[in-house]
Specification:
This is Transposase. It holds the Pfam family HTH_OrfB_IS605. InterPro entries: Cas12f1-like_TNB (IPR010095), Transposase (IPR001959), Transposase_put_HTH (IPR021027). This protein has 418 residues and is of the alpha+beta class. It folds into two domains: 169 residues, no CATH class; 184 residues, Nucleotidyltransferase, domain 5 (2-Layer Sandwich), CATH 3.30.420. Helices cover 38% and strands 19% of the residues. The chain has nine helices and 14 strands. Strands 2-6-7-1-5-4-3 form a seven-stranded antiparallel β-sheet. A five-stranded mixed β-sheet has the order 10-9-8-11-12, sandwiched between helices. A two-stranded antiparallel ribbon has the order 13-14. Helix 2 runs antiparallel to helix 3, helix 4 packs antiparallel against helix 5 and helix 5 crosses helix 8. The chain is globular, with a radius of gyration of 28 Å. The C terminus is likely disordered.
Length: 418
C-alpha cells in the first residue's frame, strides 16, 4: 500500500533559494506546455492538421530547449519531465481548457523527484533526519514519525513560509477484505461539520475569534497598499500565516474524524455532494444579475470552511487500512424526509437543529434525522428502537417465534398497569 509521510524541512539560505528556483522553472514549463496544448486543441477544432501535442512531443521539445536556454538546466531533468507528466494527466482527467495556469503570486512552489532509488535518508538523532536529493544535496528535516517503508518518490513544497518534503512510501500493508463494524450515515453540515446517524457530533473551531479579527484587519490594510510593494508582501505573508493555521487545523480534524469513523464502522455512507458546483458564485452577469449575492457568498464561505470534500478524501484514505467501504448516495430530500414515516415536507424542518414531522409528529435533531435517511438510502436497515430522537421511543419487545401468539408483558408487582 502506498502512503505519504510529510516533514518540515530546515533549509539553508542557499538550499531555500535553489528550491525556489526549481519551483519557478517547473512553473514556467507547466505554463508553456499548457499553452501549447491549448493552441493544438484550437487548431484541431478548426480542422487544421498537426502533430499531436502530448507528453512525448513536449518531452523532446524540452530536451531541445535545454540546449538553447541554460536556465532550464538548473532543475533536474526528471523533475521537469514529471511536471509534463502531471500536466498530461490533468489534461486527460479534467480537459485542457479546465486546467489553469500557475500564476507567480498565487501558486505555492512545488516539484517532485520521481526516482526513489536516487533518494537517501539517514537518521541523525531522535529529532532530526536528513535526506539526499538530486541537485539539493543533504537536506535536514524534523523526523516527527518514522518513514516505515521503501521510498518511491519525494515532493518538495512551500506552504505558509516553510518548506516541506513529502515521501511516497511503499509500506507493504494490504487492505483488509472486510470490516466487522456496523454501518453509519454521515450528514455534513454548516453548523456542525459532521453528524452521524448514531447521534454523534463532530465539529471544532478552525480559526479563533482573535485570528478572524486579525485577518479582517489585515484585509482592510491590504486594500490600501500599493501593489507589488514590500509592505503589501509583508501583509500577505501575515495573512498567509493565519490561513495556514486554519487549514492545518481543518486537516487535523478531518484526519482524526476519519480515523474514528473507519475504525468503528464497516460502511460509511455520505451524500454525493458536488462542492464545486454548490460553492459557485451567484454574481451573474450585467444582463442577468444574480439574487442574494451576499447571502450566497456567506454560505459558500461556510461550506468551504467546514471542509466537506476534505473529510470525504480523509475517509477514503483511512478506509484503506481498515477495509471500510465508503458509499455515496443521492442527497435529494434527505433533510426534508422523516426517517420514521418517510413523509417528505420542507416545513418539517422548523429550524436549523429541530425536525418535527408534519405527518406523524416525530421530533428529532435535524442533522441526526438527515444522517439516518442517508444511511437508509444506501440500503442499510435502521433500528426501530433505541433511536436518539428528542421524543425517545419506547424499546420494542423481540418478536415471538413463528406460530406463537404474542403475549403482552405482565405488570410488575405493586405497580398498577396504566
Amino acid at each position: 500500500m502506498l502512503s505519504g509521510c510529510r516533514y518540515r524541512l530546515e533549509l539553508t539560505e542557499e538550499q531555500a533559494g535553489r528550491c525556489q528556483e526549481f519551483g519557478d522553472v517547473c512553473r514556467a514549463v507547466w505554463n508553456t506546455a499548457l499553452d501549447q496544448r491549448r493552441q493544438y486543441v484550437d487548431r484541431y477544432t478548426r480542422g487544421r492538421d498537426g502533430e499531436f501535442c502530448g507528453y512525448h512531443l513536449q518531452a523532446r521539445q524540452l530536451a531541445e530547449a535545454k540546449a538553447e536556454e541554460p536556465w532550464l538546466s538548473s532543475a533536474p531533468s526528471h523533475v521537469l519531465q514529471q511536471t509534463l507528466k502531471d500536466l498530461d494527466r490533468s489534461c486527460r482527467e479534467k480537459g485542457t481548457f479546465k486546467v489553469t495556469f500557475r500564476a507567480k503570486h498565487r501558486w505555492n512552489p512545488s516539484f517532485r523527484f520521481p526516482a526513489g532509488n536516487l533518494i537517501t535518508v539517514e537518521k541523525l538523532n531522535r529529532t532530526w533526519s536528513r535526506a539526499k536529493l538530486p541537485k539539493l544535496g543533504w537536506v535536514t528535516f524534523r523526523s516527527s514519525r518514522p518513514i516505515g517503508g521503501t521510498i518511491r518518490s519525494a515532493t518538495v513544497s512551500r506552504k505558509g513560509g516553510h518548506w516541506f518534503v513529502s515521501f511516497l512510501v511503499e509500506d507493504g500493508q494490504l487492505t483488509p477484505e472486510s470490516h466487522p463494524g456496523t454501518p453509519v450515515g454521515i450528514d455534513r453540515g454548516v453548523a456542525v461539520a459532521a453528524t452521524t446517524s448514531g447521534g454523534e457530533f463532530h465539529d471544532r473551531e478552525f480559526a479563533t475569534s482573535g485570528e478572524k479579527a486579525r485577518h479582517l484587519k489585515l484585509q482592510k490594510k491590504l486594500a490600501r497598499q500599493k501593489k507589488s510593494s514590500a509592505n503589501r508582501a509583508k501583509t500577505l505573508k501575515a495573512m498567509g500565516r493565519i490561513s495556514t493555521r486554519a487549514v492545518d487545523r481543518r486537516g487535523d480534524f478531518c484526519a482524526q474524524t476519519a480515523h474514528q469513523l473507519t475504525t468503528r464502522h464497516g460502511v460509511v455512507v455520505l451524500e454525493e455532494l458536488r462542492t464545486t458546483n454548490m460553492t459557485a458564485s451567484a454574481q451573474g452577469t450585467v444582463e442577468s444579475p444574480g439574487k442574494q449575492v451576499r447571502q450566497k457568498a456567506g454560505l459558500n464561505r461556510a461550506i468551504l470552511d467546514q471542509g466537506w470534500y476534505r473529510l470525504e478524501t480523509a475517509l477514503r484514505n483511512a478506509a484503506r487500512t481498515t477495509g471500510t467501504s465508503v458509499v455515496l448516495v443521492n442527497p435529494a430530500y434527505t433533510s426534508q424526509a422523516c426517517h420514521r414515516c418517510t413523509h417528505v415536507d420542507s416545513n418539517s424542518r422548523t429550524s436549523q437543529a429541530v425536525f418535527e414531522c408534519t405527518e406523524c409528529g416525530h421530533i428529532d435533531h435535524a442533522d441526526v434525522n438527515a444522517a439516518t435517511n442517508i444511511l437508509r438510502a444506501a440500503g442499510h436497515a435502521v433500528p426501530a428502537c433505541g433511536d436518539l430522537a428528542v421524543g425517545r421511543s419506547v424499546k420494542q419487545e423481540p418478536a415471538p417465534p413463528r406460530g406463537v401468539a404474542h403475549q403482552p408483558a405482565l405488570p410488575l408487582a405493586g405497580i398498577p398497569h396504566l
